[in-house]
Amino acid sequence: MEVIIQPNAESAARMAARLFTHLIRTKPNAVLGLATGGTPVPLYKQLIEQNLDWSQITSFNLDEYIGVGAEHPQSYHAFMHENLFRHVNINSANIHIPDGMAADPDLFCQSYEEKICAAGGIDLQLLGIGTDGHIGFNEPTSSLASRTRIKTLTARTRKDNARFFGSEDAVPFHVITMGIGTILDTRKTVLLATGKNKARAVAEAVEGPITSMNPASALQLHRSAIFCLDEEAASELTRTDYYRWVFDNKPAWQVI
Questions:
Q1: Domain residue ranges in the chain
Q2: Nearest CA to 74 among 173, 162, 159?
Q3: Which of 28, 173, 195, 236 could form a disulfide with 203 if both were Cys (CB 3.0 to 4.6 A apart)?
């Protein structure tokens, strides 16, 4: 696991964007795992500004609300098209986002896993982190071996997401989400976290025990996990001097 601490949210997003830019330029047919929410919006803006060639890129999104159709303004389909897809030349046939209106959600989840495998697996997965440590919508106590499946949101997550829906009552109770096992199978993952309210979850994920009570802690088992943080999100870490020293003394071949 690598921890990169930047002065502010914009520079943390820029650091994460550099990883995606490098991959898209060096592997034009890369498979990307993408996330939604407020945190990745600056990252997506920076990718759009790079004028990259997305024509061969394949994408898989982490999750979607059940009962929310693609046309709903708070669907993750709408979010991704508004904040990224309509600004780049990605082939719509290569965009994969869970279907919140699937007639058979269990069958859909199985097929989503199969599509990821058929695409050759995910090269680079973007993650955020919830205030309780959830990644995707893998809430605390989620199996660390879980695959794409249906999950019930906690009251805390519904409260955190109420700002997008106008009220807590309007937030759906159920979602389709990639599992933690699915995320651990990706070749590289970058978790972007900003703000003081994420500091405790980040510290527990990076320096605490591996536990289903903080699903992001499973990333300690990932073959290549990078945490891109601003100062506030890193404020409860105990080894910040070491993380900065490692970053400042990277060998030239590791610098992106």
A1: 2-249
A2: 162
A3: 236
pTM: predicted TM-score of the whole model, two decimal places: 0.95
CA–CA distance, 185 with 181 (Å, rounded to integer): 6
Q: Which helix (H) or strand (E) covers residue 16, if one does?
A: helix 9-26
pLDDT tens readout for residues 150-207 = 999 989 889 888 888 888 988 999 999 999 999 999 999 999 999 999 999 999 999 9
Helix (H) or strand (E) holding 58: strand 58-61
Please provide the DSSP assignment of 180-240 as one string.
HHHHHTSSEEEEEE-SGGGHHHHHHHHHS--BTTBGGGGGGGSSSEEEEEETTTTTT-S-H
What are the tokens at 134? 């959830």
With contact defined as beta carbons under 8 Å apart, do 30 and 124 qualify? Answer: yes
Residue 46's alpha-carbon distances to 31, 51, 70, 249, in angstroms, are: 19, 9, 25, 26
Residue count of the chain: 256
Q: In angstroms, what CA-CA distances link 202 with 8, 132, 133, 245?
A: 16, 9, 7, 19
> Catalytic residue positions?
63, 132, 134, 139
SS3 60: strand
CA angle 227–228–233, rounded 5-degree value: 95
Tokens of 178: 């990639």
User: Which residue in the block uniquely carries the two structure tokens 């009220």?
Assistant: 167
How many CA atoms lie within 13 Å of 5's alpha carbon, on the beta-carbon side? 21
